[in-house]
Amino acid sequence: MDDRIERQITINAPLDRVWDLVTEPGWWVPTNTPVPIDRTPGSVTVRESEKWGRYPVQVVQLDPQTYAAFRWASTFAGAELQPDNTTLVEFRVEPVGDTVSVTVVESGFANLPASEDVRAAGYASNSDGWTQELASLKERSERVTVA
């Protein structure tokens, strides 16, 4: 079974704006409920989506404006985070001229405590999901706000 999803997108926005959005724990779980943002390594933020369910997201590591890592139990909506039920989501952020390249890698599907079918379904869902969520990140980053 595939264990790693990798997607990349180029965003025409300032690095500071992209970094601020990328480091919001669980930003990829769409929600209409405001969530307090805690970027402290080890902290857990709970994101709830009417469509997808409840997902705790743990901050693993943040290296300013270059790398962000989180853990979440993406295959187990509603589950609390356990050492064996999470995948690792890593974002690499790199300025490229006037744009910003964002690469996401999610790994750890092969070792999840579930049947092959459940792991494969989680992998397939997130493979499509990351394409959609990076497009959303691009749109939000490039949106010009008028003060």
Question: In words, what does this structure look like?
Answer:
It is globular, with a radius of gyration of 15 Å. It is an alpha+beta fold and 147 residues long. Helix content is 24%, strand content 34%. It has one domain (4-142): START domain (Alpha-D-Glucose-1,6-Bisphosphate, Chain A, domain 4), CATH 3.30.530.20. The chain has a 6-stranded antiparallel β-sheet with strand order 1-6-5-4-3-2, covered by helices on one side.
Short description:
This protein is of the alpha+beta class and 147 residues long. The protein is 24% helix and 34% strand.
- In the sheet with the most strands, the strands line up as 1-6-5-4-3-2
The whole-angstrom Rg is 15 Å
What percentage of the residues does DSSP assign to strands (E)?
25-35%
Provide mean pLDDT, rounded.
Answer: 94
Ranges where pLDDT stays below 50 over 5 or more residues in a row are none
Helix content: 10-25%
Topology-level CATH name: Alpha-D-Glucose-1,6-Bisphosphate, Chain A, domain 4
The CATH class is Alpha Beta
Tell me the name of the CATH homologous superfamily: START domain
Shape: globular
* Helix-and-strand structural type: alpha+beta
Which architecture name does CATH use? 2-Layer Sandwich
Number of helices: 2
Major sheet size, sense and barrel closure? 6 strands, antiparallel
Total domain units: 1
Work out the number of β strands: 6
Distance N terminus to C terminus? 49 Å
Along the chain, the helix and strand elements come as EHEEEEEH
Write the layout of secondary structure elements.
Layout: E1 4-11, H1 15-22, E2 44-49, E3 53-63, E4 67-72, E5 87-96, E6 99-107, H2 116-142
Antiparallel strand pairs: 1-6, 2-3, 3-4, 4-5, 5-6
Helix pairs in contact: 1-2
